[in-house]
Structure formats: structure tokens, C-alpha cells
Amino acid sequence: MNVVLGVSKILTIIGGLNWGLIGFFDFNLVDAIFGAGSVGSKVVYIVVGIAAILTLLDFVPREGRGRTEV
């Protein structure tokens, strides 16, 4: 599970950097690579969204496990 969370955090950071590019320079790197509205860009957005959910769930304490240090 630690590998999945590590990959999720990396993907979340990459998604955040893409949003930074959009906000600062009006440049969408995902659309530039895969094409705007293409299946490839939709897949990337879905995977990054799932990664963000997994990263968010990592912050929720579970029974028998304390919150991990980031």
C-alpha cells in the first residue's frame, strides 16, 4: 500500500503542477501532449483524480493506525 500511496502523491503533485501552468501561463501540458478532449487526456485526468482521492484518504485516521507523517 505504501507504493500505491507514493505513486498517488507523485501523481497529485504532477496534477498540481499542471494546474499551476494553467493558472500562470494559460498552458495545459496534458492537452498539449495528448490533445484537448482526447481519450488520452481524459485518462490522465481520471488517473490523477483517483490519485488525489487516495492521497486524501491517507490523511483520514483508520482504526488501529495513527496518522502517518508526511
What global shape is seen? elongated
* Secondary structure tally: strands: 0
Strand content: under 5%
Main structural class: mainly alpha
Order of helices and strands: HHH
Compute the separation of the termini in Å.
Answer: 15 Å
Mean pLDDT: 91
Helix content: over 70%
Count the helices. How many?
3
Unreliable stretches: none
Biggest sheet overview: none
Plain-language structure description:
The chain has 70 residues and is an all-alpha fold. The protein starts with a helix and ends in a 12-residue tail after the last helix. It is 71% helix and 0% strand. It has helices at 2-25, 29-34, 39-58. The chain is built from 3 helices and no strands.
Secondary structure topology:
Layout lengths: L1 H24 L3 H6 L4 H20 L12
Helix pairs in contact: 1-3
Nutshell version of this structure?
The chain has 70 residues and is mainly α. Helices cover 71% and strands 0% of the residues.
Q: What structural keywords apply?
A:
mainly alpha; 0% strand
